[in-house]
TrEMBL record:
NCBIfam families per record: 2A0309
Organism ancestry: Bacteria, Bacillati, Bacillota, Clostridia, Eubacteriales
Record organism: Fervidicella metallireducens AeB
Subcellular location as annotated: Membrane
Spans traversing the lipid bilayer: 31-52, 59-81, 101-121, 133-154, 166-182, 234-257, 286-311, 323-342, 348-373
Major location (coarse): membrane
Signal sequence range: none
Protein name: Spore germination protein
Keywords assigned by UniProt, alphabetized: Germination, Membrane, Transmembrane, Transmembrane helix, Transport
Amino acid sequence: MISGINLGEMEMNNREKILKENDYNLTSSQYTAVVFGTMVGVSTISITKGIVRYAHQDLWISTAVGAIFPIYIFILTMVIFKKSPGENILTLNRKYFGKFAGGLLNLILLVYFLITLLIIGNTYIDMITTFSAGFLSPFKVALAVFAVSAYAASNGLRVVAKVSQIALYLTFLLILPSIMALKEAKIINIYPVFESGFSGIVNGGIEAFKQYLGIEIIFIIYPYLKQKDKMAKVTVNAILLTTLVHVWIGFISVYYLGSDVILKSDWSFLLVTESVTISLINNFRYIFILVWSLIILKSISLYYSALLFCLKDFTSNKFQYKILAFVVLPLLVLLCIEFENIFPTEEILNFITISYEIYLIFLGTLMAITVSIKSPKEQRKN
């Protein structure tokens, strides 16, 4: 009787383990979509806003220079991955730096994902209420978007990854029609090339770093890639696709609008979509905003998942993701509504963003060095 009970418990535990693996293990295409999805979202259509101040008509070159940031994060991750393929950075921080220091490093990462989630959520609310649903209150929009994201994130990383796959295809379907803007663009808008000089392009590239934020999610999710031998290939594919999207949006925006117009516009690529005319579609811009909203929902769901990973590091193992996802929901809605009071100026947000860029580079570099030094010692001991 006792052995029968133990056998039943073992079978139940095995089923739970299989369920968990199915919920979180990612295929190569899903992994690519997740990494791409964290870097392409709400701010992508306004990517030119900050860069144009430095690079002017060369801003599209600066968007390519900005790809240095995800490439460096990728290199660091590969070093960590080769030494500890089954443990993500949250586990490694506590393993190598202890409960207190490791917990502090994880807490800073948690706050980063929280703030990024609020920034995306607030920007999404602004876009929706400005361009398509002004009759809705910010509270209703925030509640709807975070509730949907909480539901998606609570069902496991694989569900969010499948949504990310759809969003990846939608991203290219939405951007492809902007090719039509080429016939109305003026080549003088991008000439002379390199006029902003080396320093202008580099400074624009540094500004473009923030458009690639999100790549750091690979610090957390790499153990969940099924085909670990394809880690390098799928991550590089995601970075290349992201860079392609950013460079094209930067190029077509300045080519069609010119740097002077971009300086005065918060959503420059939306102005480009006005040039798109498709039979049977009266207003492509409206369609664009509607579909892009779904892409932003994907981004919010991804960052919601990353936040849950960090929160789980500070909670009991019995505290399930499904419960955790909805426990933090009211807090996220409240913070998003109070966003303007928490972060009253753009300068504060820029400072926070730059600070976290530096922190992510520091954290990744520190861990890459640590595992390179300590991992061989651990192997010799074993």
